[in-house]
Design brief:
With 401 residues, the protein is α+β, with helices and mostly antiparallel strands. The chain folds into three domains: 63 residues; 230 residues, Hypothetical protein af1432 (Orthogonal Bundle), CATH 1.10.3210; 67 residues, no CATH class. The protein is built from 15 helices and ten strands. The chain has a five-stranded antiparallel β-sheet. A five-stranded antiparallel β-sheet has the order 9-8-7-6-10. α3 packs across α4 and α4 crosses α6. It is globular and about 60 Å long. 40% of the residues are buried.
């Protein structure tokens, strides 16, 4: 049986089924392994892990621990409770109208960030005057209708992850800030920080960033140094405000003090740093990487909710979930009727009943005539979230054009 235990319950002789790590770069060969000695337990604790999953068939048991099924049932119930309190999200522009602008803007954003990272590698300074207009356009697009740009930000190429991730974090921070009702000027500063939050990775060799095998201890430290490198780059860039600096310098800090580089905790981390940490982890764990299979958006939200017991402010995690939806736009879902489709728009009155573009029948395993279905107006309900790769479906083809 798979059970969740606290780190202080972990002992040699147990088999780790899942490290349940809040960020992807940990110094272990895999997420699952047999714990042979106390040194391994200490090393797991040092990473900042507070709860993890063990396999009681392959190793020692903790009798009173909750099963993974019980943990998931509790998380599902908590998601349902969050969904009953959706925020007001006024839509200023129809989705089809904004989607045309959003696709063009997304392509432009990826090019600009790629060029910026290349310039930094060549020893050049960040050209802030090239980035600020892009940030303003992204903010305006999401304020007009966030369901146009956000699903595009989820689509990434393995080889281009570093800069596409920056574009995604930027877009998600705008939606998060909008949901929190922060001022537009503050949101623009956060968005700039989101676009720049990983600039320090331009000074990390690609063979380390994209290494498909286990990182050495030195490589692990080198990866973590990207935050300090980013801080130095921003100090050399005129016109960077304090909010953008906090996003860049604090996005790997954790609420319980287990993050890096400064081991900040609780209120010692700025609001914007805490928001950036949530967004950064969400996008990382829901993205396909060379060495990591991405979770579905809904699974990633459940993980954030679970980790909010230690790593994140629980209220902020709930605010983020309400801001992007229980089934974020771009999520592939299967309905009770066995029909499948992609979530194309959130329903303001119920996060559990989004608008879905139906195009496939899972039971009959063939495509069907596309249809837009507002789940708030029909009896059909979402039965499960699905994986595009499993069904060999191209998400880009089915998002609003």
């Amino acid at each position: 049986m798979i059970k969740q235990i606290r780190i202080d319950q972990l002992k040699p002789g147990m088999y780790v089924h899942d490290l349940n790590c809040g960020w992807l770069d940990h110094p272990f060969l895999s997420n699952a392994f047999y714990v042979r000695d106390a040194a391994t337990v200490d090393k797991i604790a040092e990473v900042g892990i507070r709860e993890l999953y063990i396999d009681t068939v392959k190793g020692a048991d903790v009798w009173a621990a909750r099963s993974q099924r019980e943990v998931n049932a509790d998380l599902d119930q908590r998601l349902q409770e969050i969904a009953r309190k959706p925020p007001e999200k006024p839509i200023a522009t129809e989705l089809t109208e904004e989607s045309v602008r959003a696709r063009r803007l997304h392509g432009e954003a990826n090019k600009i960030v790629r060029h910026m990272m290349d310039d930094i590698r060549m020893g050049q300074q960040i050209q802030i005057d090239r980035i600020e207009p892009l940030v303003e356009n992204m903010v305006d697009s999401i304020f007009r209708n966030q369901d146009a740009l956000l699903p595009l930000a989820r689509l990434k190429n393995h080889d281009d992850y570093t800069f596409e991730h920056s574009v995604s974090v930027c877009a998600l921070l705008v939606a998060f800030g909008r949901g929190m009702k922060l001022s537009k000027e503050v949101i623009k500063e956060m968005a700039l920080g989101g676009l720049l939050h990983d600039v320090g990775k331009a000074r990390i060799p690609d063979e380390i960033l994209n290494k498909p095998a286990k990182l050495t201890d030195d490589e692990y430290v080198r990866i973590q140094s990207h935050v300090a490198q980013g801080r130095l780059l921003l100090e050399q860039t005129p016109g960077i405000g304090e909010i953008a600096r906090q996003v860049t310098c604090q996005h790997h800090e954790r609420f319980d003090g287990s993050g890096y580089p400064d081991k900040l905790a609780g209120g010692g981390i700025s609001l914007y740093g805490q928001m950036a940490a949530i967004v950064d982890v969400y996008d990382a764990i829901s993205s396909e990487r060379v060495y990591h299979k991405g979770m579905s958006p809904t699974q990633a939200l459940k993980k954030l909710l679970e980790w909010s017991a230690h790593h994140f402010d629980p209220q902020l995690v709930q605010a983020f979930i309400r801001a992007i939806g229980i089934y974020p736009t771009g999520t592939l879902v299967q309905l009770d009727s066995k029909r499948m489709g992609v979530v194309v728009e959130q329903n303001e009155k119920s996060l559990l009943e989004p608008v879905v573009r139906i195009f496939y029948h899972a039971g009959q395993q063939h495509y069907i005539p596309p249809e837009i279905v507002d789940l708030a107006k029909v009896q059909d309900r979402i039965a499960s979230f699905e994986n595009y790769e499993k069904w060999k479906i191209d998400p880009y083809h089915w998002l609003p054009a």
